[in-house]
């Protein structure tokens, strides 16, 4: 780790008027500083700022510095959010990591984290060796010639499914943007990962009230049971009445360069009966537009099966004989 200057602003105004890299829980930033992936000269410890609080009134509101473990345990938080948080990292890291920092975490692509290798996200124009190299963990959706790295956050998948928004503050004021639009596809500028402008800070996460999201879940498939990033995940909420799906929210993680909303799956589910056949027909659209690489083609059927598994979990539908999800 290289030398840096550390300061601790006392107010949001002080933080926004001071140029530097924001430090909250530090569970991503400090790791990347140790690897020399990030080398900030000035770090602003923002933990003293009044950016906490959990409100489950008209909407779910999380202060950006609320810890992941506290949100996961809070009554009134939708199950898909709690489960996504609880399946993220270890208990110790969840006690440290902030919700705002989690949404801003960088990819776990090994090429990005290895400064001896080229990487367009870290060094624009240097290349993307994952396209022809080790790419088992990489994206099949939303990728480009310049980058195929997956987005790392679990809870961002659930929040995108629920149309969450983030409030961004700067010295010029504040603005609110949909989380789905906050993340940027890599295109030919993969180093520009979000819509965050220079000097802006996430201050709050807002999830519109959706009462039927109480019937929701988050299914994560990974190489080991704990402390591992997703090979594939699905955040699903269902509004079921009289054995028929009235509405649905579905998003996927571990398979795309950003949290990926599965609108075609949602459309196929609306009005469908609660049956295995309906789930299979809807899940067949989960990987629409997917472009596999040499080692990650397995993610296409895995995504479809993960969506079916989440749908069955929420409805207790019986699997068709000979079919597993």
From TrEMBL:
* Name of the molecule in the record: Xanthine dehydrogenase family protein subunit M
Q: Which UniProt keywords apply?
A: Oxidoreductase
Coiled-coil ranges from the UniProt annotation: none
- Residues forming the FAD-binding PCMH-type domain are 1-212
Matching Pfam families, A to Z? CO_deh_flav_C, FAD_binding_5
Concerning Gene3D superfamilies, the annotation shows: 3.30.465.10, CO dehydrogenase flavoprotein, C-terminal domain, Uridine Diphospho-n-acetylenolpyruvylglucosamine Reductase, domain 2
In terms of InterPro entries, this protein maps to: CO_DH_flav_C (IPR005107), CO_DH_flav_C_dom_sf (IPR036683), Diverse_Substr_Oxidored (IPR051312), FAD-bd_PCMH (IPR016166), FAD-bd_PCMH-like_sf (IPR036318), FAD-bd_PCMH_sub1 (IPR016167), FAD-bd_PCMH_sub2 (IPR016169), Mopterin_DH_FAD-bd (IPR002346)
Task: Identify the domain of life.
Answer: Bacteria
């Amino acid at each position: 780790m290289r030398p840096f200057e550390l300061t601790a602003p006392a107010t949001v105004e002080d933080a926004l008027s001071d140029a530097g890299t924001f430090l909250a829980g530090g569970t991503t930033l400090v790791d990347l500083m140790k690897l020399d992936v990030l080398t900030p000269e000035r770090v602003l410890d923002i933990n003293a700022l009044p950016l906490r609080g959990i409100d489950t009134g008209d909407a779910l509101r999380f202060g950006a510095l609320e810890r992941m473990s506290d949100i996961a345990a809070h009554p009134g938080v939708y199950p898909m959010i709690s489960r996504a948080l609880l399946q993220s990292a270890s208990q110790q890291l969840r006690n440290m990591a902030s919700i705002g920092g989690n949404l801003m975490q960088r990819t776990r692509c090994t090429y990005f984290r290895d400064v001896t290798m080229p990487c367009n996200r870290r060094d624009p124009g240097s290349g993307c060796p994952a396209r022809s190299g080790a790419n088992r963990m990489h994206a099949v959706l939303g990728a480009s010639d310049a980058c195929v790295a997956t987005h790392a956050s679990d809870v961002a998948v659930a929040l995108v499914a629920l149309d969450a928004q983030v409030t961004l503050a700067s010295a010029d004021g504040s603005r609110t943007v949909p989380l789905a639009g906050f993340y940027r596809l890599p295109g030919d500028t993969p180093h520009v990962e979000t819509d965050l402008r220079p000097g802006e800070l996430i201050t709050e996460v807002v999830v519109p009230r959706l009462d039927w999201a109480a019937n929701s879940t988050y299914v994560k498939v990974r190489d080991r049971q704990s402390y591992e990033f997703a090979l594939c995940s699905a955040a699903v909420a269902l509004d079921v009445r009289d054995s028929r799906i009235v509405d649905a929210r579905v998003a996927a993680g571990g398979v795309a360069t950003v949290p990926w909303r599965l609108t075609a799956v949602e459309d196929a589910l609306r009005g469908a009966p609660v049956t295995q056949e309906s789930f299979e027909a809807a899940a067949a659209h989960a990987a629409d537009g997917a472009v596999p690489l040499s080692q990650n083609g397995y993610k296409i059927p895995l995504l479809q099966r993960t969506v079916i598994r989440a749908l069955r979990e929420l409805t207790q539908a019986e699997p068709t004989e000979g079919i597993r999800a």
